[in-house]
Every structure is written in structure tokens, then in C-alpha cells.
Amino acid sequence: xxxxxxxxxxxxxxxxxxxxxxxxxxxxxxxxxxxxxxxxxxxxxxxxxxxxxxxxxxxxxxxxxxxxxxxxxxxxxxxxxxxxxxxxxxxxxxxxxxxxxxxxxxxxxxxxxxxxxxxxxxxxxxxxxxxxxxxxxxxxxxxxxxxxxxxxxxxxxxxxxxxxxxxxxxxxxxxxxxxxxxxxxxxxxxxxxxxxxxxxxxxxxxxxxxxxxxxxxxxxxxxxxxxxxxxxxxxxxxxxxxxxxxxxxxxxxxxxxxxxxxxxxxxxxxxxxxxxxxxxxxxxxxxxxxxxxxxxxxxxxxxxxxxxxxxxxxxxxxxxxxxxxxxxxxxxxxxxxxxxxxxxxxxxxxxxxxxxxxxxxxxxxxxxxxxxxxxxxxxxxxxxxxxxxxxxxxxxxxxxxxxxxxxxxxxxxxxxxxxxxxxxxxxxxxxxxxxxxx
Length: 438
Prior knowledge:
The chain is α/β, with parallel strands linked by helices. The protein has two domains: 19-292, Metallo-dependent phosphatases (Purple Acid Phosphatase, chain A, domain 2); 302-437, 5'-Nucleotidase, C-terminal domain (5'-nucleotidase,  domain 2, Alpha-Beta Complex). The chain has helices spanning 2-18, 46-58, 76-81, 84-90, 109-118, 168-171, 179-190, 205-214, 284-301, 314-329, 352-358, 377-380, 397-401, 423-434; strands at residues 21-29, 63-67, 97-99, 123-124, 128-129, 141-146, 149-157, 175-176, 196-202, 220-224, 234-236, 239-242, 250-259, 264-274, 304-308, 333-334, 348-351, 364-371, 390-396, 418-422, 436-437. Strand 11 and strand 12 (239-242) form a beta hairpin. The longest helix is centred in the C-terminal third of the chain and has 18 residues, at 284-301.
């Protein structure tokens, strides 16, 4: 009789343990790029994002809000004040964990130390190290508790930062360890300390997929860097990756069922929540901070410089900016890549702010002289070129420094000795002269 009762209790205990499945909601954003205000279509804005985060948390029994890098660089407040106000405002968004993006390096690696100190949320990055192995962010991961679930969040940054997305002077003594190998190392370290392992990565899509395929201890990858949202969850044997559209126009909501016994996901459902400023009441504290900082830059950027007869999308702006650079420098050709162009010009009055948003980087225009045969294929495309004739080519100092990258010229060895004005100032001056953009 006693033995039978003991067996029954053991069966009951095992059954309860086997059924220990708990809910967890991961809210996530990426590539906010200092877009404090809503865009011309009423999307995004930090005050509206803050409200959405708060409301989604209220609809969850346990939640974490993760930000996947590139919090700064993209609007005048960030450009003029070198990113720091953005971190201070972001403290009111409710972020639980963030990671470094490539644009955190735009103001130099020393500025990242200021960001980390200003943030009231932890910043994790496991693969940005110096020669001694010290971590730039100070910690590779954190373990957060939500709903009784121990969630290990490992941060990583894309492996081709130097020479493709940041110049050596901005990165300083730091270098990047391989993404997948680094995740594998720290996943093994946190395995016994956590119930769920999440990678928070400002990484390429193929790096995110490689983590899910090659590191089975990782259940979730929250992705940043690519500005376009995934069409659907990336799913590899029940392990999932998610990415939403940049600039804070969307908030991701990943609803998980976590098997506490097996330390893995039982299920995952994902939805994207539009941040519609016409339907969401802005958070008053965030709105107040945003207004404070925007007032500081308004006299510089909220000045009309021309008029647009139509909306100019990024491809249109690529041609317009190249024309402005060529005409302002007297060059035969000018070239910029689409990644240099970060916003659009809506139809109507054109404010200097629009150009600051389109060209937030403090890139200088540089000029070189080359024979037609030396011009990069991307410059020669669609042009009638004499191979023996000498041409002048204008581009940015960033492109010149990273010219071998596939995202830039894809060739090396071109010298650009002449330095002109800042690209942004040059385009603003050109529009002032043209007055009308058609």
C-alpha cells in the first residue's frame, strides 16, 4: 500500500514536471537610428513606441523588450550631439537589454563608453574585443528573469564591421571575433545557468540563420542591421529568428511557450505591431524629452531650402545627390551608394532637416582624377566612357576609405587627394540654388 502511494506520487511529480511550460513575450526593435519624431506618413516616433511597449507589456504575463543595435545616427539631434541624447531618451522606452550596432561606432569607439554609462539598461556584445580579449561592452551576456524563466541574452555584432561598415580610426584597438563561434562559446557557458538562450544580434541575415542552424542551444535570435522586416519567422527545427522594419515604425512581439524541463521552445508565435502616431497616444515623459532636444536643433534644420514637386524616394535621391556633388565640385562624375541615403523627400516644402535625415553622416566629398579605364564599373555603368581620357570623380571619404567593399566601388587603389565640403552641406547649398526639385 505504501509502495503504491509512493509510485503514485512519483508519477504525479513527473507529470507536473513534464507539464512545466511557461509563457514569455519578447518585444523587439532594431535600427531606431535616432528617429525621435514620426515620419511624414505618421509612422514611428519614440514617444509612440514607448506607449506601444507599455501596452504590449500589459497584455503579457512575462515579457522582455530587446533592442538589436543602431540606436543612434540618423537625425539632427544625434548628429549634432553625437548620439548621447538618444541613449538618455531611450532610457524611458523600457528597454531590458540592448546590443551594439555598427553605427554606434560612427562617433568613435570612445563615445560608446559614454553610451554604455548613460544607458540604464545593459548593453551586451560578446565579439568586440581588443588584443587582450577585453570586451568593449564590458559583458558578453546578461541573464534576466521573467515569469520565473531565466533568459540568457548574448549580444553579437556583424563580423565584417572593419573595412566595410566602419573605418579603422572609428574602431580603434577593437576587432571582431567570428559570430557563430562566439555564440557557441557563450551558449555553452550559460547553458546550466538559464532556461532559454536568446541571441541579440546586430548581424547579417545569413549570420542569424547560421546561428539557428549550427548552435542548437540557442532558441531565439533577435536580429538587427537589415532595415526590412522578415516576411515570416525564420524557423529551424523550432528555433526562431525575428527582425522588424527600421526607424521604429514597427514593434515585434514574439509570444513563446518555454518548456522548462527541456530548456527549449515548445511554440512561437510572432506578430508585427505598426507604430501609428495617428492611433497611439504618445508617452508624455518621452514626448517632453523629445521636444526638449528637438527645440535645440530646430533653428538650424527647420529652415526651408526649396520645394519638391513630387516625392523623391531613395533611388531618385541617389541620382539627385550625385548630380549635386558633380555640379558643386565641377566633376565629370559623382557616385554614392544607396546605403549613404537614409530617408526620403516628401512632396512640398523641403526643409534642411530632410537633408540632415537623408545624409546624417559627417561625410566629406573627395575628388580624384582617373583615366576612363580606371573608373569603377559602378561609375561607368550607363555612361559613354573613353578609356584613355582623364575624368574627375567625386565621392565621399567613407566610400574612398572602404572602396574595396562590395557595397562601395568593389575595387581598390583609387586615390582621392582633394577634399571638398561636407556632403550634406553641399547638397543643401545646391538645393538652395535650384529652388525647385522636379
